[in-house]
Amino acid sequence: MLEILDLSRKLDPETARVERRRLGEELARLQRAAFVHGLPALFVFEGLDGAGKGDSLAHLVEWLDPRGFQVHAPRGPSEEEALRPAWWRFWLRTPPRGGLALFDRSWHGELVQRRLDGTLDDAAWERALAQTREFEQQLAADGTVVVKFWLHVSREEQKRRVRAWAKDEHQRWRAELARERREHGRKETLRVVEEVLARTHVPEAPWVLVEADDDQWRRVGVMRGAADALRRGLAARGVTVADPSAPDRAAVSPPVAPTPDTLPPGFAIPVDSPLARADLSLRLDKADAQRELAAAQARLRELEFTCYARRQTTIVAFEGWDAAGKGSAIKRLIGELDPRGYAVIPVAGPTAEEKAHHYLWRFWRDLPKGGHLAVFDRTWYGRVLVERVEGFAGEEAWRRAYREINEFERALTEAGVVLVKFWLHVSPEEQLRRFRAREANPDKRYKIVPEDWRNRARWPQYVEAVGDMLRQTSTAAAPWAIVEAEDKPYARVKVLRTVVDALERAVGRDAKS
Length: 513
Fold this sequence. Notes:
Layout (H helix, E strand, L loop, with lengths): L12 H24 L4 E7 L5 H9 L7 E4 L6 H4 L5 H4 L8 E5 L2 H11 L4 H20 L3 E8 L2 H13 L4 H10 L4 H15 L6 E5 L3 H22 L12 H4 L33 H25 L3 E7 L5 H8 L8 E5 L5 H4 L5 H5 L7 E5 L8 H5 L4 H20 L3 E8 L2 H13 L9 H8 L1 H15 L6 E5 L3 H20 L6
Parallel strand pairs: 1-3, 1-4, 2-3, 4-5, 6-8, 6-9, 7-8, 9-10
Helix pairs in contact: 1-10, 2-10, 5-6, 5-9, 7-8, 12-21, 13-21
């Protein structure tokens, strides 16, 4: 199977850049359609050390909404996982309806390694292959798109990349790991890989082989394979995603009548509110903002490696008005990070299981492990915001929540967690402008829902709730950062700078590794 690959294939950088943009924009549309239609997808990335799995993941998710995917990098079962059936930990990581799960190595890599190590005799090997097919076919039969990428690299290029890792202080650990894996030899490893590929390649869960000697060719190949898979999965449900440049686009998504404004007339933020101190006139020139954003993103990537090495855990919490730009700020925050080191957790209304517990239970469940970053898009502050305003929590419960939240956050920070909290603030006039823009844009119309207009009608009540929240829960260890978000470039840069400053205080401004 692997001998058919032409590893000399290349793409020039400009052609690759244009094709990546085209595919990226299509992937963003396909992801939105998958979310709307409840289509789950699971992508597996396998390959020899140095084949570019992490880089392929990073270039793929660059175009996706980070609230809609999770990246998993399993490296052998934990003590708890080892006490359960082998497939338990993988079942727990399968994607929800409308979500995407990406695996940097998977059950396939473990299968190869166990065969090479001699821990699977012939009978166990046959059973493991059968269980692999069964697992993937069960997911596919339930509607999950399952695609597996094998990134193949030549012996010479692999050696060159491992040598480069050894010279990089952030990547040196990868070179050591690659040397450990080379004990079985490339020829024997590929013999086992070939058998796994051949015997687990089925129509419901195919392997996509990607030549990986040339980075540009590999990145485009992975993005094309992902787009093809999502397109086929949606087509099987009778869904076609229209090209925005198509002449019949207007017919596909006709204009909608603007919703009448629901903000009570004559409302102004009280002068004693913490929000009144925010200067919404703050702006950044786009060119200056882009330079500052790029510098902050590069520094944050350095700090990500430092935090991983030192097991420094970070939580970034986002709250703010509807259409204040939380999603775009989160996307820039994680834009240059290794996707295996962070998770974005979108918080919606509690499920029946979550309602059966204390409201903080689900947030304890989603805390990141040491060395990782978790970004919460909306948070535990729902108890003193939406639940207070909408009457889902009684007055005694939401008043008690201020103390409980402070205790929760103190437990985190005393355990060494870096906790950064943002409130993104815009004026009612800017919010209305953004609502109208979403209604007018077919690609963004899904972002505006009736609940947004209901929340706008309660703006005075929310201003009061936000003011109380900021006063009651901004502590020395976990202060609130109010982000003036009237100008999106300014807001994005302020978010990045604030996170970088917090991490530099935690690990040292001169920290490199």
